[in-house]
Amino acid sequence: MSTPLFHEHLFHDSAATSEFAVRLSALLHPGSVILLEGGIGAGKTHFARSLIQARMAVSGVVEDVPSPTFTLVQTYDDAEGEIWHADLYRLTHPDEVDELGLIDAFEDAICLVEWPDRLGDLTPEHALTIEFSATKTEGERHARFICPTPEWAARVEEALT
Description:
It is built from 5 helices and 7 strands; from the N terminus they run βαβαββααβββα. By secondary structure, it is an alpha/beta fold.
């Protein structure tokens, strides 16, 4: 695997984070995996919700998109296939990830994974990682993008412009 490419961006409010998620959603395809890192309240679920709602809207579906904190995984069907939104916070061992079916989904679904540190050695090498952190300004988020391939770097750059 090549050396990851890093990008950083400051989203000035939650609307800017949502706009980025909407633009990035159009650039995804089955097999796209996004790992969402950051503490509680950093903006992971807000980003995932915006991205999923944008994908569903293309199919004419309005979706509520609840946090999968208690269900661990929520799945959605859009025009291209499945979207998996996973929150692994409550997992205690990487073996539990396989039981959820998430490993197979990495190959043929769009996957958004919160708390990806729980994946351990099961972390897909081809995944985009977004590290979110809140700033002292209400609604403002700093994002650090770790792009494992030039293709991911190009998608991030396109969605940021």
